[in-house]
Amino acid sequence: MMSIALAEAPVFPALAPPLTLRLRQETRDLHDRIEANARFARLMAPDLTMAEYRRLVARLHGHHGPLETALDAVSHRLPACLVLHRRLTRRAALAADLRALGFAPDDIAALPRCEAHAIRSVEQALGALYVLEGSTLGGQLIARHLNAALGIGPTNGAAHVVPHGAETGTLWRDFRLALDAGAEAAQFDPDAVIAAARHAFDVLDRWVAGA
Length: 211
Hints:
This protein is an all-alpha fold and 211 residues long.
């Protein structure tokens, strides 16, 4: 009786998950820690005070300003499709918010600045941008709450809350596509991007929780 040898099914290597999926999964613990940060948690409290809000804006100014400056310094090494000039707008918005909230120019200049940002590589820049860009997604909800709780909006103390305006969804989608495409094309090290994002989350959490 003739036997027929069956060819073994080819074995294909498992496809790597998209970088943006890995980022979401592998930074979830730090994202949850940020949301549990007492100062961020108070932001959505019904009894939020103006004094609490002013302290938070001052801390965010001290964090975002140096970070955006550091990102500017490496912008020439990042994909042009990221259009950083449309993304790095919060330092100006935060400064305007502080002025609207009663801070004098000398007071703003004297505010502490976070020096923990180390942006020397494409991966470090992308990891930091992941945290910055992701933080814009809940802006509309926060903006509505601030208007109801404190009577403030984009022109009198909350311009930084929705920094991209109507472009928020588009810029986030384009950023995610650029991350996934770049990782798939081996333009940068995905593991290093994830490590940088984790560092950026940790720095933000510790800075905002500080004095």
